[in-house]
Amino acid sequence: MHKSIHRFSISMSGDLVAQLDQMVSAKGYANRSQAIADMVRDELVEHRSAGGNRQIAGTITLVYDHHRRNIQARLTAIQHDHGEQIIATLHAHLDHHNCMEVLAVRGRADQVKKLADGLIAVKGVKHGKLTMTTTGREFAK
Amino acid sequence: MHKSIHRFSISMSGDLVAQLDQMVSAKGYANRSQAIADMVRDELVEHRSAGGNRQIAGTITLVYDHHRRNIQARLTAIQHDHGEQIIATLHAHLDHHNCMEVLAVRGRADQVKKLADGLIAVKGVKHGKLTMTTTGREFAK
Amino acid sequence: MHKSIHRFSISMSGDLVAQLDQMVSAKGYANRSQAIADMVRDELVEHRSAGGNRQIAGTITLVYDHHRRNIQARLTAIQHDHGEQIIATLHAHLDHHNCMEVLAVRGRADQVKKLADGLIAVKGVKHGKLTMTTTGREFAK
Amino acid sequence: MHKSIHRFSISMSGDLVAQLDQMVSAKGYANRSQAIADMVRDELVEHRSAGGNRQIAGTITLVYDHHRRNIQARLTAIQHDHGEQIIATLHAHLDHHNCMEVLAVRGRADQVKKLADGLIAVKGVKHGKLTMTTTGREFAK
């Protein structure tokens, strides 16, 4: 492993930077770099723990502004390529701009994760989250 | 809200940057900035959900065996007592025994949490999970 | 065919009889018998036109009071016996008592119809309706 | 509301009674009374839906090819203009091309009808159908 420190620049909306800085300060981080490094590590843990070929059920929750050009066409195209994993999608209109879309999914963990990654990476998705749960078979309860 | 794009530099270990880049590519993001912006928004959603009176949207995912005596009557009774927070519920039949129920919810964070806690505590619920997201208003994106 | 007139007695809640009588008069029927005979003929036409072994998609809409003893257990048991025909079910809480449940269905027309008949006949279902539509394949449009 | 059970007699041709009995049995009803009460409620729902300012619940079912240029953007734009009437939308992927979208709706009959007309008229919608039902309040059952 190379332990050297790398410096690189990133860009985001000024609005988001302002909100990031408030959180960095509220959480007591020394600076943005430290906070972002923590987020990256968290995300890596989640990224790796997911996947695998076990059967899971779950949900993918997306929030986006449906006025964003072509966003729905792109989200739907990805969904139709994963027809096998998607049971159905629930769409709620949060306000004039914002939609929440919830996909009920089922299948191999790695394929469900790939579907979630693809949807969340679509430009214009404000927040996306994969929630994995059991298919119920493993727990007798 | 200022929609201008801000550019700033951050630093982290070369090792972490390498792992970040692998994940950025595996998830299908166009670049590091887009991936990090998504992590920041994710962290903001979680950070703010701690604030009880903040408006949030989200989902509650439940898996249970519908043959359990009275389980549906109990789940529905709780849901009807929180009619204001629940947009709608999606019910999928996973197999002959197991159901996945996904509630699309919206409202004050503390009330949504109380609803989730109540549902997850019902005897016979094999797994339950509250996933919080944004109402979309806080992120201009 | 025997054209003789048969007379038989039926029972329903006094509340429903009152609403029936208002409608009988508003529609200009001479009496209840004439109105009910028309409803029976309408229902027979619908009953016969449905069915068959063609593939259809559609929805089954149910309204019921979830406080009715065991109604949900009975509705869910029927749904799990028709797992193949049901894509997913959307449940909306109309008020403290009343639920609207919408099943998205797909399959052979006769099997879907059997499922709908079974659900609508459950005691306590206030109103139920099968809406058949196309699977989209037959119309190029 | 008076919940007492009323018993009354009706008459129809023996031929029609025979066909009614076959249907009652095929549909799984316990007896003629139960089947006729369901027909009466169905007829009442339809009869009342003509009254523009009456509160109704219902579903709008749409089938379309999501590859049709801009069809989703158009459907969503109309839905966001009727946010008050729409509880949530269930989206099912029938195959690579065809989607079935089911809107759970509630509100004044005339406004719900206007929403349905607008959606069904969108170019590329292969089939659309408004199914009206009761909000449950009018039937004690």
Structural features, described:
The structure is a homotetramer of 141-residue chains. Chain A has 141 residues and is an alpha+beta fold. Chain A has two domains: 14-49; 55-133, Alpha-Beta Plaits. Helices cover 38% and strands 34% of the residues of chain A. The first copy, chain A, has helices spanning 14-26, 32-49, 71-81, 109-120; strands at residues 5-13, 55-65, 86-93, 98-108, 125-133. In chain A, strands 3-4-2-5 form a four-stranded antiparallel beta sheet, covered by helices on one side. The longest helix of chain A is centred in the N-terminal third of the chain and has 18 residues, at 32-49. Chain A starts with a strand and ends in an 8-residue tail after the last strand. The model of chain A has no long low-confidence stretch (mean pLDDT 88). Chains A and B meet through strand 1, helix 1, helix 2, strand 2 and strand 3 of A and strand 1, helix 1, helix 2, strand 2 and strand 3 of B. Strand 3 of chain A pairs antiparallel with strand 3 of chain D, so a sheet runs across the interface.
Task: Just give the CATH class of the largest domain in chain A.
Answer: Alpha Beta
* Biggest chain contact: A-B, 74 and 75 residues
- Mean pLDDT of chain A, as a whole number? 88
Number of separate helices of chain A? 4
CATH architectural arrangement of the largest domain in chain A: 2-Layer Sandwich
Q: Please bin the fraction of helical residues of chain A.
A: 25-40%
Largest sheet of chain A: 4 strands, antiparallel
Classify the oligomer: homotetramer
Poorly predicted parts of chain A? none
Q: How far from one another are the termini of chain A?
A: 45 Å
The amount of beta strand of chain A, in percent, is 25-35%
